[in-house]
Amino acid sequence: MKIIDEDLASRVVRLRPGKSHKGTYGRILLIGGSKQYGGAILMAAEGAVMAGAGLTTVATDPSNVTPLRTRLPEAMAIDLYSPALFDQVAKNDVIVLGPGLGTDEQAKNIFAKVLETVSKEQTLLIDASGLTLLAQNRELISRIKAGLVVLTPHQMEWQWLSSIKIADQNDQENLKVLASLFSEKVKNVILVLKSHRTRVYDLAGRVYQNSAGNPGMATGGMGDTLAGITGAFLAQFGPRLESVLAAVYCHSLAGDDLYQDNYLVLPTKISEHLPQVMKRLSLSSKNR
Ligand SMILES: NC(=O)C1=CN([C@@H]2O[C@H](COP(=O)(O)OP(=O)(O)OC[C@H]3O[C@@H](n4cnc5c(N)ncnc54)[C@H](OP(=O)(O)O)[C@@H]3O)[C@@H](O)[C@H]2O)[C@@H](O)CC1
Ligand SMILES: Nc1ncnc2c1ncn2[C@@H]1O[C@H](COP(=O)(O)OP(=O)(O)O)[C@@H](O)[C@H]1O
Ligand SMILES: [Mg+2]
């Protein structure tokens, strides 16, 4: 097992080249946010914008569009239930599917259709309700065509998908079940198993453990924020394991900075602090 640390993250978060534009930093589409869970997709979108995605679009319930535009004018918004959703899916490098999507029949239909629309040139990150829907409909795994799939479950979501009880979730079991669920169907899969010390796995059998993070981060929406940040890192730094590792680390490093002076750390504060954390990493000795 390897450790995810500052050294590793600073190899990914480099100084930006002067000759660049928004397209250089990737296009990300976040899909989720039912009437009930609008906050989840707002927090994911805020994570994506503040982590540096070049262009961020959100597909959500119409009731969330005005709050989103008010809070985050940098993001574009479309109606989750409009057929235009699938044109948008085709236009983006990274699709984040699931934060606050809900698990009713309409959500399931959208989930299944997006899953099979994402092409092999694109990355699909599945989080939250998306993971619950996948666990309830495992036959959908064979319809995934995405070039890279990133799963970001907490331990219970992983239990639902893998059938491994939380107490039995060790590296060997996690790798075995990840392979049995995906290796025949999807070539490139990364599992981010979230906990107080998040571990990251891939189909090559690599295992990494996060060295940052704190209990002040145990607040609803913290995972939704990580989904947005990870999507933005994949869009910006490329569809590879290192982008995911750096995202996990930066999310927690921002949390640790804030925890020094605060009893608890809000997800939106992590997003707000992220550009500073990324600047610091980009100026570290490895990058100069
Ligand atoms: N502001 C908003 O709009 C927010 C919206 N959100 C959206 O809500 C949707 C539902 O997501 P969710 O995570 O709240 O509930 P769900 O998937 O049913 O899991 C709960 C079950 O899992 C367990 N459990 C949880 N964490 C665990 C862990 N680390 N390790 C182990 N177990 C853990 C937990 O156990 P317990 O807490 O009872 O101990 C319980 O049994 C989703 O779409 C999300 O995006 C939220 O993000 C919040 C902010
Ligand atoms: N005690 C803790 N120490 C470090 N990180 C934590 C702790 N509790 C929660 N986290 C982090 O917060 C996030 C929680 O994700 P998740 O359960 O999906 O939240 P939500 O669905 O409410 O957005 C994960 O990134 C996890 O690693
Ligand atoms: Mg979650």
From TrEMBL:
It comes from the Bacteria. Signal peptide: none annotated. AMP binds at residues 194-198, 223. Keywords: ATP-binding, Lyase, NAD, NADP, Nucleotide-binding. Catalyzes the dehydration of the S-form of NAD(P)HX at the expense of ADP, which is converted to AMP. Together with NAD(P)HX epimerase, which catalyzes the epimerization of the S- and R-forms, the enzyme allows the repair of both epimers of NAD(P)HX, a damaged form of NAD(P)H that is a result of enzymatic or heat-dependent hydration. Belongs to the NnrD/CARKD family. This is ADP-dependent (S)-NAD(P)H-hydrate dehydratase. It comes from Lactobacillus equicursoris DSM 19284 = JCM 14600 = CIP 110162. The gene is nnrD.
